[in-house]
Structure formats: structure tokens, C-alpha cells
Amino acid sequence: MRSFTLNGVTLDIPEAALSDTLILSLETKRYEHSEANALNKHLLPGDRVLELGSGAGYLGVLAARIVGAEAVMGVEGRPDMAEAARANLARNGMEAATMIWGAAVSDSFAADHITFLVTRAFWASARVDDTAAITAPASRQVDVPALRLGDLMVRHRPTVLVVDIEGGEIDLFDRPLPDTIRLLVLEIHAKAYGKAGIKRIFDALSAAGLTYCPLGSQGDTVVFQRVE
Questions:
Q1: How far apart are CA 207 and CA 61, in angstroms?
Q2: Considering only CA atoms, which of 197, 156, 203, 204 is closest in space to residue 177?
Q3: Average pLDDT over residues 170-182
Q4: Cα 69 from Cα 151, distance rounded (Å)
Q5: Alpha-helical regions (H) of 96-189
Q6: Alpha helices of 2-138 — where are they, by DSSP H?
Q7: Checking phi first, is residue 180 left (phi over 0); if not, alpha (psi -120 to 50) or beta?
Q8: CB-side exposure of 171: number of CA atoms within 13 Å?
Q9: Is the alpha carbon torsion for 157, 101, 44, 183 positive or negative?
Q10: Are 82 and 100 in contact (CB under 8 A)?
Q11: How far apart are CA 138 and CA 26, in angstroms?
Q12: Whole-angstrom Cα distance, residue 38 to residue 108?
């Protein structure tokens, strides 16, 4: 294990899940900094947060500081990182948060499992049908539970979605999000689906009553708010 500290959050990460680039990002405090900034600007006490693609659990801890650990649920597809995220939440006093192993999929996804590509750097691991990750060096492929977004929302009743699933977001919003979702923090992956894919996502979110919000958006991290 390697230990890192960002914004007072201690993260223990398996050596096998780290690359030189990822280590540099963690050591220079740039890891997930734009998503963290968006959450700090927008999260409110009383929110319930569902995070898809939890990685090391960093954003889950930050969210739990604002909304309470019981109001945070994370989903992580890589088996070793799901365990690491769960441990990191507990290590930082947020053991009441929920961490689930599995890959988030659209409600139209038919199978109960999906093949997941495990890369050297955990932040590039993704479903094998998401082209963003296929070019990354992979150590192995594993079958993981397919977790439909609608089922996750029924279970947790979130008001806020945080999504970073390396291209898997392309079809995630083809069915409208419920009116209870007031905020979405999303990392887009243009290399996976290009301009047409970005338009597809933005159009779907607009049709669901969500609009782009400049406050907290930065680079590939975009924030959407519900139009009142």
C-alpha cells in the first residue's frame, strides 16, 4: 500500500493500482481536484450523493463531510479499488457510507454482469466496451456485477450524482433522470465518443431538465443543475 494525504483525507492505495502519472497527481494534490472543487461549491447539507466510479474514495469522503456519511453511496467496478475505497471511507471516519462493487450501466442494459478492464493505473480501468480504456495497458479482465442506474437511484434516493466512469456515461442518461436529481458532476471522455457523444449526453440531460452550470465546471469536469 502507498499512503497519500489530500485536503486532510488519507488514502491508502494498492501499489498494483498505481502508475507514475497517477502517483504524481496524488502527490501534487491534483487528483480529482476539479470534481472536489465542484462539490465544495454546490453540495448542501441534506443532499444525498450517489457516486459512480469511486476510485480511492476521495470524493466520497469530501461529500460525507458536508452531507453526512449515511447520505453517501459509492459504486466502483474494480474489485481491489472497491475494497480500498471502503477502507478509506472508514479510515477517515466515514464508515457509515455505502460502497458497492459493480459497474454502473444504463437501465436498458440486459445482462447481470459486464466485463471490466483492469489497467495498471486504477483511474483508467473501465468496461471493455468503452473505447477510452481499451488503449490503456491492461493486466486482466474481470466480470463484475452490472448495476442499473435506475435501481441504484431507487435504493439510495440521491439528489446529487457524481459520475466518472471512463466513457460508460455515453448511454447512462438515455432515459430521463428523475426530478429529484438537482445536481450532476460529470467527467466527460471525448476520446471515447467524440463530439457526437458529448452532444448526445448534453441533449439527454437538457431534455431531463438539467442545464450546464459554469460554476464548478473545469475542463473535462462539467456541472449540470436542474432548471427551476
A1: 31
A2: 204
A3: 94
A4: 20
A5: 131-134, 149-156
A6: 20-27, 33-42, 58-67, 79-91, 131-134
A7: alpha
A8: 10
A9: negative
A10: yes
A11: 21
A12: 29
pLDDT in tens, 119-154: 989 999 998 876 444 555 557 899 999 999 999 999
Percent of the chain at pLDDT above 90? 92
Domains, the chain: 32-226 (3.40.50.150)
Task: Give burial (CB, 10 Å; 0-12/13-18/19+) of 174.
Answer: middle
Q: Is the pTM of this model over 0.85?
A: yes
Residue 31: all three cell numbers together: 487528483
Phi, psi for 200 (deg, rounded to 5):
-60, -45
Give Cα 77 to chain centroid, integer Å. 10
Q: Which residues neighbour 180 within 8 Å (Cβ) at sequence distance 6 or greater?
A: 157, 158, 159
